[in-house]
Amino acid sequence: MRKGIYLRIALILATVVLAFIFFLPNTPLFDYMPQWWKKNMPHKGIVLGLDLRGGSHLVFEVDIKRARQITVERIGMHLQSLLEKKGIKASVKISDEKIIIQPVNDEAKKLVKENYPDLSISVQGNNLLCELPESAFKRIETTSVEQAIEVIRNRVDQLGVAEPIIHRQGENEIVVQLPGVKDPKKALEIIGKTAQLEFKLLDEETPLWKELPSLIKAGEEESFLNKWKSKLPEGDELVFQKIVNKETGEVYKRPYIVKKDVLLTGDLLAEAHVSIDQRFNEPYVSLRFNDAGAKIFEEITAKYVKHRLAIILDGNLYSAPVIQERIEGGNAQITGNFSMEEAKDLAIVLRAGALPAPVKLIQNVTVGPTLGRDSIEAGKMAVIFAAVFVSLFMVFYYRLSGVIADFALILNIILLIGALAALNATLTLPGIAGIALAIGMAVDSNVLMFERIREELRVGKTPKAAIESGYKKAFWTIFDSHVTTLITAAVLFHFGSGPIKGFAVTLSLGVAINLFTALIGTKTVFDFIYIGKERKSLSI
């Protein structure tokens, strides 16, 4: 009997020591620990969430309509390439998410069915009309948002943000929370870039080419487009290249006429990194395409030798080199008078992946660290007041047994904080509310047991027998109530997001630890007091 009690005491002490070790990184003592300790022992602790630490709360909207259009355009481009390879004389056009092949012929029909069996085919006059079913479009919309979340997550990881929260909201919105971000403007630029990398041909053969001005002032693009839009040949569009006067710092835009047809896109990109031009000592971004992209790039450069290929990112032209010869291996460069910082940011966006569709920022909220500090102080006071009032009530109502319950309460808080630190959990305001709720639940189990013990004492049992019987009879009631709470916490965690999940984690940990402190912690204290001797009374 005595040996079993000492084993339980050792278990309680061990859990307290572990809790302290895991929580140590959140205390000033960690700064004074030796280097071997910092290197080999837990060094993360509890991370403060956005509402406590400060940072950025961003909400993006994915343009799913554009995602549908991009998919149709890619299918159209591929079909055009297949028709040319097979020597089939037919052209492909895109109109209202429909692919039109003209003129109609059996070879074109067969080619479409073999490569895209999901497309529905119909003949209208001399046109072969190909359409994706609505089920395919729904799948595209869903995957576009999911892919956008993954791309944004990759970019956030490269920013080095600790414990970011990224999740889907509604049909096509993405919520991004970045706790502790020091430069929210830069983070927004990197995360929010649509990174629609496209390769298009310059149309230097149109008569309008000679009429284009060499430069216009930055900010005049819209009026320039309105003036020239009606003059452009069908199938052409205007893009601009940013030109900065290094002496004066003035920004200009150089207009270019390009073909609307996209020859290659950034989703086939395998690698992007910053290199230095040895001749001009200027940074540029080196690109390498994956196997599929390299093959397409080789075909493009073979077909359009002596043509200029525009490299366009998010509608802005960065470079338009002349294709001198067929290029194998899928390597390309983006130049544009970058600073090193601009080149690095551009490489991050491209390396992290191209978004499947453009995204638009619809909400940007910056939470200051001062507000976070106020929230932490308010949360601390709430937890302290809750603990003090609960402790006083237990002592007043249950006397010495109430003191034992308060010991379990303190143990519960220590182990809960240690468990959160061990999981490197993100603590938010709802998480603090969960801790306060766990304090109330910590004594709830003791109340059930103490009332059972009182009932046993009323029927004439000795204190020791009353304690044993009270714990046994209260066990299943306590167990059932805690299991139902855990089920609720699991549902909150599964269906909730962000702070709701934080509350669910704190609540479930508090419930599990409460079972340990109530059924083992307080029972050990009672057994230690009454071991080896029979007391006539019990302070309860």
From TrEMBL:
GO CC terms: plasma membrane
Protein origin, superkingdom: Bacteria
Subcellular location(s) per record: Cell membrane
SUPFAM superfamilies: Multidrug efflux transporter AcrB transmembrane domain
GO molecular function: protein-transporting ATPase activity
Protein translocase subunit SecDF P1 domain ranges (all copies): 145-203
Pfam families: Sec_GG, SecD_1st, SecD_SecF_C, SecDF_P1_head
Domain Protein export membrane protein SecD/SecF C-terminal: residue ranges: 360-518
Stored InterPro entries: Acrflvin-R, SecD, SecD/SecF_arch_bac, SecD/SecF_CS, SecD_1st, SecD_SecF_C, SecD_SecF_C_bact, SecDF_P1_head
Topological category with respect to the lipid bilayer: Multi-pass membrane protein
Domain SecDF P1 head subdomain, chain residue ranges per copy: 252-357
Gene3D superfamilies linked to this entry: 3.30.1360.200, 3.30.70.3400, Multidrug efflux transporter AcrB transmembrane domain
UniProt keywords, alphabetically: Cell inner membrane, Cell membrane, Membrane, Protein transport, Translocation, Transmembrane, Transmembrane helix, Transport
HAMAP family xref list: SecD_B
Family: Belongs to the SecD/SecF family. SecD subfamily.
Subunit organization: Forms a complex with SecF. Part of the essential Sec protein translocation apparatus which comprises SecA, SecYEG and auxiliary proteins SecDF. Other proteins may also be involved.
Stored NCBIfam families: 2A0604s01, secD
Protein name: Protein translocase subunit SecD
Organism: Thermodesulfovibrio aggregans
Organismal lineage: Bacteria, Pseudomonadati, Nitrospirota, Thermodesulfovibrionia, Thermodesulfovibrionales
